[in-house]
Amino acid sequence: MFLVKMPNMNNQQKYLILYNLRSTYNVGAIFRTAEAVGMTKIYLIGTSPRPVDEYKRLNHKIIKTALGAEKVMNWEYKKTSGPLLNKFKKNKIELIALEQDIKACDYKQIKPKGDWALIVGEETKGLPKKILDQVDLIAEIPMVGIKESLNVSVATGIALFKFLE
Q: Domains in the chain, ordered, with CATH?
C-alpha cells in the first residue's frame, strides 16, 4: 500500500501550541500526528519538553515516539505564550483552545476557514484562564464514559483530524 501526501491546496497556515506539557511521550506523539496532518509549525511553550534542548542534547523519549517527525516538523520553543498569542491575534490567526470549559463548544462544530492555531495544555491542569481569555474559540471533545478527559496526544489527534476534514 502506498500513502500519498496531499499538498495544502489552500495555503492555510496551521499551527499547534503545546502549553506546559509534561510528558515527553505526549510531545513525541503530537509531533508525529502534526506531521501526518501537515501542520505548519509546532510551538513548545514553557515547560514543554523539546526534541533538542538549549544545550543541543537530543531528547530520546521524544525521538522514540515521534519516529522521525521531529526531524521534519518545523518547531520553535518560547518561554511564555503571551507574545506569541498577541502576534497571532495581530495577524488574524484564529486561536482555538482544546479544553473543558463552560464556554466550550463541541469540537465537531468547528471548521477553521483561514489561518488558525490549536492550543493544548498541560496534562492535569489544562490551559489557564489567562490563555482561555485570549482565544477566539474553545473546543471540547464530549465525554460519555465515566472518565472526564482523554490523553492530550489523543485529544489533539482527534481535534486535528476533525478540523482538517
A: 14-163 (3.40.1280.10)
